[in-house]
Amino acid sequence: MSTSAASLCCSSTQVNGFGLRPERSLLYQPTSFSFSRRRTHGIVKASSRVDRFSKSDIIVSPSILSANFAKLGEQVKAVELADLPLDVHLMIVEPEQRVPDFIKAGADIVSVHCEQQSTIHLHRTVNQIKSLGAKAGVVLNPGTPLSAIEYVLDMVDLVLIMSVNPGFGGQSFIESQVKKISDLRKMCAEKGVNPWIEVDGGVTPANAYKVIEAGANALVAGSAVFGAKDYAEAIKGIKASKRPAAVAV
Fold this sequence. Notes:
By secondary structure, the protein is of the alpha/beta class.
């Protein structure tokens, strides 16, 4: 069984640290490729693509945000042929206006930000995603506390912890997010729920073990994959990441 998925992060020009003013050209261009997928695989429901993965596995999702957009069609075609889940992170304001378009385009998982600057009515938007047949995820920026999603935790299929400030690729991993991941895993256990816990930002073979040990089971890797000569080896390196052996004194 393959343990990969494709992650598509859709955003716009960053404004005031979050500001995600949707721009039609940027928003729709990366997703136009997917309309053929629903025609080709119309009888395949989103849940069947996602549910084939066990949460005991570590899933690595190469982020298209860090891909070579000049060759985006080739890279996305490989995902279509493999029939892998398409995990879409809507880093935009008022995502509820665009959710139907992305699900129609082929999104299997749609994640929206919990911050009120982005999603005014989070509960309603999560319900909207699920009612349209996709899996629903919520996203927290590094400075957003877990309390912001506690009231929808029993509804969502995925929680995405941003380990960099969103808006552009190639940033360094924010170490404080490791504890947030651990705290989220404990919160889920206390509530008797088991969503995917996904981490996005600065994940590399050198540090992936930290988030895996903390309880994450889905890792988004952009620059670490698309910046490597061999994508497959880069993904293997992330999944095989181990804590360095202690040095004897």
